Every structure is written in structure tokens, then in C-alpha cells.
Amino acid sequence: MSLLEVNGISKIYRRGDTAALVGVSFCLEEKHILALVGASGSGKTTMLRILAGLEVPDAGEVRLDGRVIARASGGVAAEQRGIGMVFQNHALFPHLTVEKNVLFGVRKLAKPAQSRLLAELLELVGLPGMAQRYPHELSGGERQRVALARALAPGPQLLLLDEPFSSLDMRLKQSVRDETRDILRARGTAAVFVTHDTEDSLAVADRIVVMQEGRVQQIGAPQEVYHAPASPYVARFFGSCNFLPFQLLGSLERARVSCRVGPPGGASGERGLWVRPEHLLLEKPTAAGGLSGEVERVCFAGSSQRVFLKCAGDLLIEVSHTQGFPVEKGQVWGIIPVRRLPEQP
Amino acid sequence: MEIKSRLFSGFLFKLLAAGLALAVLIPLGVVFLRASQPAGEAWAAIVEYRLWGYIWQTLLLVSLVTVIALAVGVPTAWVISAYDFRGRALLDWLLLLPMAMPGFVAAAAYVDLIGALTPFFIWVRQEWGIDAFLRVQLIVPWIFATGILGMTLFPYVYLSCRAIFARQSAGAIEAARLLGEGGAGVFFRVALPMARPAIVAGGSLVVMETMNDYGVVSLFGLMPLTPGVFRAWGEGEVVVAMRLALFLMIFLSAVLVAERWQRGRRGFGDSNGEGKLGRTRLGRGKSLLAVTFCTIPLILGFFLPVWRLLRWCWDSRGSAELAGHSQAAWNSFALAGGTVCLLLCGAVALVAVQRAYGSRSILVAQKICLLGYGLPSALVAVGVGALVVFLAENFPGGGMLALSASVFGLVLAYFVRFLAVAIQPLAAGYDRVPGCLREAARTLGSGRLGAMWRVDLPLVRTTLLAGATLCFVDIFKELTLTLVLRPFDFETLATRIYRFTDEGRVADAAVPAMALVVLCLIGLFPLSTLMKRLER
């Protein structure tokens, strides 16, 4: 039995009857981290708020440890679920010190136990000696860590994180992200986190649930979702992805194709290949008539160059060029797939 | 089970909110009920002889006072916002002072000046004849009354425009400057149109206050609708008073609807953190001009009356009225203090509990209670007055009950009229507390009321206190309601000031008047800090 089971959750907002969630189901094992990923308006935050008990679903049910905690007729009140939450802007209580913030949820604990817990948690998040500070005296990263410590203090079975890293700047984000994952792993706390940043989800989650317009598009491990997208939407959502219709690839050697045949794409639902730019190489155009195109634009992206080529049929293909030789606008290059992905060891 | 108890407590709070909304609607209901009863000849006589006079006097009074308040309030706000000169920061604060000068107190300080004009009247009589003399005698009280109301009410316009000039339109004003528009051009082409919502908002407050005024107009012998209502009430023509109060209500509703309508159409004026307006430094000559321009209304609306009152205070030292003054002051304190406690509970039940439960029905009740501020004072007074009479007649229990009935009526009337004053700062304070804090408290095991108690209320403490102070001062200086509803022989500072002034004993009125002004000054502090907090 999974720790968390979400079965057919639907939610309709009364204004304009737009459905926020349509029959969403997924489950989460103990000690695992699950990411709900989607663009804004995909319903991922609504889903999280239903898990927390801050909203009530219109259909379906949520079970935690076998017990029904949310269903259309109500369920367990938010304060009695034993689910912790880290909010998007951390939601630290501005009128309370770090100590009072962290201990907010464990008021009923004896004083000595409280101070032991405080010391342990501040040690865990790397903020010892900050207990008497107020939230406005902390940096963004420190606030995020206090929010995490506060949510962990009551010892929740499940931790929810709503866009926990979005308010941090790029450099800070990576370190806080890795720290958060290590802390969750160390405590063995299962977590669901919501993000619109695919990189966050790929780096932190054990499983990813991709959502679009209130529906689940795909559920899978990060590698699965990235390399074998279930739909064009998922393919594009996790970074640039080229769609190469089979009819254009007639002469492309099948043996050299290293990527999987993806879901139907394109305007008319034709079949073809979904290939990420880093799985394509440039080479001298061959007389044999492989896929080739004229360079339309070259963008420098640090470790690579993003080359956009215009191929037959107005098809624009992006290649992540890392081979070093110069590529300029107007040149004609052949495009071939990377020969073979390295096998799993 | 836990859900059941939660639903039950939610139900109780909804019941409470419904009761509060009902209380606010009571005066209106009573007035409607009584106004629909037959009035007989009395009403016909009023329609024939007085109604037209009431209406044109009301319209003239309101338009004159509004024009004066706008003509003073908007330019002063612009000068303070857009220019920098010596004394600017001080003037910025001083321009709020006239708010601490209740109209009837200023009137007390000015009313004897009409007597001082006698040589002028004689001169007119000799030079221009009897017609001119009569006309001047008619016009001069109007000049005084509208001038006094305008000079004490303009800070409403000043405040609302100041906020918008300083913050909201800063970006556009700076853009206009960079496009080569000069001072006056910026004012008329950019700042003024953009401040329109603020001008209308401040102006409608001025209109409301003017319509509700009883003290100033009756001291100068003007007869717009509000004194008209009380005259009919005093003559025992209850139904006539009710109908006149409804006329007042129609006027006021029209103003409020117009204000709402233009606010709804406003597609501009909201800031998105554009930053503060950079002020232009003025040279010596222009600085002097700016200071003079801002100081004249200050002198007329505050310093001159205060100076005259202080002088009379000094003259009347050792007067025999001190015991009466302190009794009246105690009455005022007890009434205002008690009502403020009730108002605070009401505001918490309507705002804090509403947010805690996210209840739509409590929100509706809250909106209804906000309407109370839009009810004319005269309507609330006669509505509650009729209710008290009804209670006293149908539940006779001797004089003691009659006294407590009218104290109850007075508290109910204050409650209805000022509940909005307590609600609005609290609601504004709540708007600044992110909802996620409440949710965070709940995921940490606090119940709805627990989260309200441990997180929300500590965070809105200052705005709650500011609202309480505003209510306290408003009740303290309320004259119109108190005059009608007070128990027999029961005086507050406000009614005492009015009575002495009316009897021509302005010197005796000076001490309570100064006490009232000082108290209102204390009330300005929370107001200005509230404005600053909301501005940020």
C-alpha cells in the first residue's frame, strides 16, 4: 500500500465553471519525493492545496496511510491531517522569532522537549544560533530553511512544498535545492512538491507527475519523462524538442536513429520522431540526400551553441552544437542523430 | 465529529453577523415603516411651505462647501507632493490639523464675528439701501457657514489626493516632465486627470459630512434638510421627519452611487510600485508663495479658532461651569469608551472571523454593516429615536427604564453609524496579511480561531487600535445623533459646546471646545500613521 493515494480528484471553480482538476490520480511511496510539474494554470497548486486540506475536492478521494483525508463531503480538517507544508513565499510569521516560528506547531510538547527539537532542527537546516532572529533579519535562503524546519517540527508523515525555490535567485537556488533534498532523504520524510521549473523536478524528484490544464499528462521517473515523453506537450515542456515527421526522414538511416519513436505530433497527428537538440549533430551535407538545412540563427549558450536550421517543408530544427567547429548563418549543414546513447552500466 | 463542531461554531458566527447586519438596518427599517404611515395635513403644509427651501438650501450648501474643499484640498496636495521648499514636511503634517476641528467648534469660535460686522451692515444700509442690507444679512451667514465647513473638511480631499499624487501617478508625472511639460502643465494634463478617483472619493466624504452637519448650519441659521428633519421631529411630526430623512437618504445615495460608479470605471490610478515622485526644488519667491498658499486655509480652519478659544479659556478661568464640564466629559468618555468596545467586537466578528472561515455570508453582512456609514445621521437619529419611543411606550417600567432605553438608543445609533469606521481599518490591515500565513498556521495544527488568535490578530493589532481611536474620537465629537437621542438632562462635551454657543455664551463653551480639539488631535496620530502604513 502506498503512503499517499490520490484517486480521481476533480475540482471545478464556480466562477465560469472552469475545471481546475479533472480526474487526477497518482500515488506516492514512503520516503519518496514526487514533483507536480506544469505551467501556471495547470492545476498543480490546487492539487497541493487539496492535499493540505486548504481546499475541498468536488470528486474523488485522497488517502494518507489508508485513511481517507479528503473527499467531496469534507474530510479531515487541515490542522488534523499531520501534513506539513512549505509555502511559496515561506509564509514565516513576521511577528515571531525563528524559535517561535519553528516551535509554532508543537506547542503541546513539554518545554525541554521543545528546546531539544529546536536545536536539532536548526542544526539540520544549518542555522544554529539564529533562534532569536526575526524573519526580516534573514536572507532568502535562510528563510527557506526556517520554513522547512518549521514544517518538519511536528514530524509530519508527508511534507508539501509549494514552489519552494521560486523566490530564490539562480545561484542560491541550486544549493538550497540540493540541501532540501538531502534533508528530506535524511529524515525519511515523503514529500510532494509543486514547481513550474522542470529542472527542479528532474533534479529532486523520484517521480514526476506532469500536469496540463487540470489533467495528468504523464507519470514517471525523471529519466522516463525526459527521454520518453508521453505527449508532444510533455516533450516540449521539458526543454526544446524537435519533431521530425517520418515522411521527411525517408532516407535517414534507421540504424543510426538513437531516439525512440515518440507520440504523434505535428498538426495533423502524423507520426515521427521527437529528438532533443543535444541528440543531434551537424555534419557535411551528403550527396545521399540525408536531412539537411540552412542555418538561420546561431545563439551562443555558454557550453554549446544553439543552431537553428531551416529544412525542407519549412521545418525549423534546433541542434545543440558542441563540436567546436564554427557554424555561421547561411551555411548548409547535414543533420544526423547522435549515434548511440551510452548503455546503462 | 470534528467537522460537526466546526460547522456549529461557523453557524454561530454567521448568526452573530446576521444580527449585526440587522442592527444596522433597524433605523432604516423603522424610517421606512413610519414614513409610509399617513401624515395628513402636516406633510402637505411642509411640501407647500418648506420642502423646496430645504432642498435648494441643501443643494447650495453642499455644492458651495464641496467647491471650497476641492479648491483648497487639491492644489495644496499638489504643492506638497510635487515641490520641495522650506517647511514642506511640517506643512504636510499641519494640513491635517483642521480635521481635529469639529465644524461646530469652529463655528463657536467664529459666530460672534457676525456681531462684529455690525458697522459693515450699517454702512451697507446707509450706502446701498434696505434691499442690499437685507440681502447682505442673508448672504453673510452663508459665507461663514460654507467657509467654516470648507476649511474644516478640505483635509479629506487633501489626504486622498496626497496619497495618489505622492505614489500612484509618480511614474506618469515624471514621464510628463521628461517630455518637457512644466509645473502647471503637468498638474492640469496629467496629475489632475489621474487623481480624479481620489478627488471624487475625498469630495464625496466632504458631501457626506456637510449633509450630516447640524451644528454649523443651525448656529448660522441655515435650514437645509438635516435641521429640517430635527425641526419636524421637535414639533412632534414624526412621519414628516421620517419622510424628510428619506429625502436626505436619496441625496446621499445618489452621491455614493456616483462615487461607486466612477470608481468602478477607473482603469487607472492603481500603482504597481512605480516609486516615489521626485520633488522639484522651489526658489525663494515661489517657496514663499507655496507656504502662504498652504498656510491660509490652515489659519482659517485651525489656528484662528484655536487662538480665539484659548483666549476665551483664559478669560473664563475660575468660572462656575467647571463641575458641569467635568460631568459632561465623563459622560462623553463613558459613552465613547463603551461603544468602542462594542464596535471592536463587532469589527472582529465581521472581519477577522470572516477571514478565518472564508465565509461568504459573513462577507455580505460585513458589506451591509459598511452601509451604515452612508446612512444620514438625521435618519439614524430619528429611526433609533422612534424605536426608543416605541420601546418606552410598549414596555413601560418607569423612569429608570426610559433612561436606559435612551442610552441604549444612543449606543445603537453610534454603533450603526460608526461600525464602518472600525471595520475599514481592520479590513485594510487584513488585506496586508498574506492569506498563506493563516494557512501555514493551520497546516501546523492551529484551528481556524486559533490561527486568527495567534497569527492574524497580532499582525493587525496596530490597525485595530487605530480604528478604535478613530471611532472613539468620532463618537466623542458626534453632535447630531447625541442632540436628538440623549436622555433628558444628559450632556456630553459636544452638546454642551453647542448649547453654550447657541445661548450666546461662547466664552463658556471655550473650555470644553478646547478639550474636544485636544482629544481630536490625539486621534490624528493613529490616522496619520494608518495612512503611512497603508501608503507603503
Assign the structural class of chain A, choosing from mainly alpha, mainly beta, alpha/beta, alpha+beta, or little secondary structure.
alpha+beta
Write down the CATH topology of the domain at 52-101 and 154-309 in chain B.
MetI-like fold
The CATH fourth-level homologous superfamily of the largest domain in chain A:
P-loop containing nucleotide triphosphate hydrolases
The percent range for strand residues of chain A is 25-35%
Number of helices of chain A: 8
Characterize the main sheet of chain A.
Answer: 6 strands, mixed
Q: Care to count the β-strands of chain A?
A: 18
Task: Give a topology summary.
The complex is a heterodimer of chains A (345) and B (536).
Chain A: E1 4-12, E2 19-28, E3 33-37, H1 44-52, E4 59-64, E5 67-71, E6 74-75, E7 83-86, H2 98-102, H3 111-124, H4 140-152, E8 158-162, H5 170-187, E9 190-195, H6 198-204, E10 207-212, E11 215-220, H7 222-227, H8 232-237, E12 242-245, E13 272-275, E14 280-283, E15 292-300, E16 305-311, E17 315-321, E18 332-337
Parallel strand pairs in A: 3-9, 3-10, 7-8, 8-9
Antiparallel strand pairs in A: 1-2, 1-4, 4-5, 5-6, 10-11, 12-13, 14-18, 15-16, 15-18, 16-17
Chain B: H1 2-35, H2 41-49, H3 51-82, E1 83-84, H4 88-94, H5 103-110, H6 113-116, H7 118-128, H8 130-168, H9 170-178, H10 183-194, H11 196-212, H12 215-219, H13 225-234, H14 238-265, E2 280-281, H15 284-315, H16 322-357, H17 360-371, H18 377-394, H19 399-431, H20 435-443, H21 448-476, H22 480-485, H23 493-502, H24 506-535
Parallel strand pairs in B: 1-2
